[in-house]
Design brief:
It contains 18 helices and 17 strands. It is α/β, with parallel strands linked by helices and 524 residues long. Strands 1-2-3-6-7-9-11 form a seven-stranded parallel sheet. A six-stranded mixed sheet has the order 12-17-16-15-13-14, sandwiched between helices. α17 links the parallel β15 and β16. The longest helix is centred in the middle third of the chain and has 21 residues. It is elongated.
Length: 524
């Protein structure tokens, strides 16, 4: 354990640094990185965020933890797992019929991996009630709350604090606040019975370490300001006696910057009752200046600063107490991790249609890719998506392992006329066509959907019922616009899902998963 800072001994400069979480990423210059370490040496930094995608993360984490002589909060996001233990997105937990053992293992194994790397705070889990993104568990308030509690217990048992997100919840809105300001228009009574349920249950169970307010207006409480800078929205929690840590979502998102600029939100969020600002896209010294300028301009006062600092120190105290926890999970937890990827796969069939297709038949598997790839080219070292799970050439090998007489072809998400002609000609001698579709989890892209060009090709092939199945790995709502099919097999972004789904299609395995909401449109 490290020696903790005492509030009464902190200077004003140190207090301002305590309410800053700076983003330490791989593109920082050496000079900027040195400034982070210098601020830590001076005890003028409350938290650092370190991306698990940074190629030099081990070196960064080691240096930060060696430099800090106080229990600085070291934060990350690990929604797809970490290192050797990769997970499907959290939506898969909802697809396993909301299995609480799986949710606990999810938290325990992720927590163990990041703790051993030198991280003591996880930005997660996402507890928004939504069917929009793969980052959301589902839409049932009580079930999401139960899984959130189980996941946080797993994190605690691994010695990691949890900052759940994104308060106050999206409501019925589908706007991505990375791109514009969001709005939750539920009535107060409706909001309390839906979006707020997971927060209330976590509070009741003593598990609400922290929250991440999003840049979304909660109209029933404050019709003017997004929750991240709204005192009225924050007071809903504070008035219930909650004294946990509130760390803003990234303050560079367009949901905030378009109205309030780059600098001012840092001060406004502290005035609203948040405890830590996350400027994200600026260096630590610039982020510090944003807070210093906001304090000097009167955007927030000393009383508000002191209240925030005390809660940061309390969070550091909790993290310090957890530092001696034995982090080794049970073998059962690792077994659950392996089962999630298989048991989240669901299958949906037209009435009277055999569930399997002939694994010894000749089928053409059309693998949808983000960019133009050739099947015969050497497999690239890089995955199709940034979260390192979808390698088209590896998927091709998986298909051949289960369907030895079948072949694969790649189709980009924006196919040209030449691509389409090639596919139409190529599919003629085969027994059927099978589509394998997927998508990345990424902000700033709007709605998850197949492109109209891809759908046009599907509709053309289905005019003579040529497609025998679609295997989709991603948001099930991407299937809403797909034409009628005999078979939909749905999974999530994990290679183990793909392998299991192929075996389900061949009749070698059973699909026991469910779709965690009831408004997906599958035309069977």
């Amino acid at each position: 354990m490290k020696k903790e800072l005492k509030f009464e001994e902190l200077t004003l400069e140190q207090k301002l640094g305590m309410v800053l979480c700076t983003n330490v990423h791989s593109s920082l210059s050496e000079n900027e990185y040195d400034k982070v370490l210098e601020m830590i040496k001076k005890r003028r930094l409350g938290a650092v965020y370190v991306s698990l995608l940074a190629p030099n993360k081990e070196e960064i984490l080691k240096k930060i933890n060696e430099t800090a002589d106080y229990p600085i909060l070291v934060v990350t996001m690990a929604e797809a797992g970490f290192e050797k233990y990769k997970f499907p997105p959290i939506r898969a937990l909802g697809a396993t019929d909301y299995n609480e053992d799986f949710a606990y293992a999810y938290g325990r194994v992720i927590g163990t991996e990041i703790r051993q790397a030198g991280i003591n705070v996880l930005n997660g889990p996402v507890i928004d009630l939504s069917n929009v993104s793969m980052r959301h568990i589902g839409t049932d308030p009580e079930k999401v709350a139960d899984l959130a509690c189980a996941s946080v217990r797993g994190l605690h048992d691994a010695g990691v604090l949890a900052i759940v997100k994104h308060y106050p919840g999206p409501g019925d809105a589908t706007i991505d606040s990375h791109m514009q300001e969001g709005r939750n228009d539920r009535s107060y009574e409706e909001w309390i019975k839906t979006d707020f349920v997971p927060y209330q249950k976590l509070m009741d169970e003593g598990l609400l370490d922290g929250i991440m307010p999003g840049h979304r207006i909660l109209a029933c409480v404050d019709d003017k300001l997004p929750a991240s800078i709204s005192k009225k929205a924050m007071d809903v929690l504070r008035d219930k006696g909650w004294d946990g840590l509130s760390m803003t979502d990234a303050l560079n998102m367009m949901g905030l910057v378009l109205k309030y600029g780059q600098e001012e939100p840092s001060g406004l969020c502290i005035a609203a009752g948040n405890d830590m600002a996350l400027p994200w896209s600026v260096s630590c010294d610039v982020g510090y200046e944003y807070l210093k300028n906001g304090f000097e301009r009167g955007l927030f006062n000393e009383e508000e600063l002191d209240a925030a600092v005390k809660r940061v120190l309390l969070a550091q105290h909790k993290a310090n107490l957890m530092s001696d926890i034995d982090t080794e999970p049970r073998e059962y937890d690792y077994e659950c991790v392996e089962r999630i990827a298989k048991e989240c796969v669901s299958a949906h069939y037209a009435e009277g249609v055999p569930h399997a297709i002939d694994k010894n038949g000749r089928h053409l598997f059309v693998i949808l890719t983000e960019r133009d790839l050739k099947e015969t080219e050497p497999a690239p070292d890089e995955p199709l998506f940034a979260n390192e799970w979808f390698f088209p050439h590896r998927v091709q090998d998986m298909v051949k392992a289960v369907f030895p007489n079948s072949d694969c072809t790649f189709l980009p998400e924006y196919p040209s006329a030449a691509h389409n002609i090639r596919l139409f000609d190529k599919q003629i001698p085969y027994d059927s066509v099978v589509y394998i579709t997927s998508h990345r989890i990424q902000a700033y892209l709007g709605r998850d959907c197949l492109t109209e060009r891809v759908l046009a090709v599907m509709r053309a092939l289905q005019s003579t019922n040529r497609i025998s199945a679609i295997l989709h790995f991603g948001n099930p709502h991407m299937m809403d616009d797909v034409p009628r099919m005999d078979r939909f097999i749905l999974g999530y972004s994990d290679e183990r899902c793909i392998t299991h789904a192929l075996k389900v299609l061949a009749g070698e395995a059973e699909a026991v998963g469910t779709v965690p909401y009831d408004d997906v449109i599958l035309k069977l």
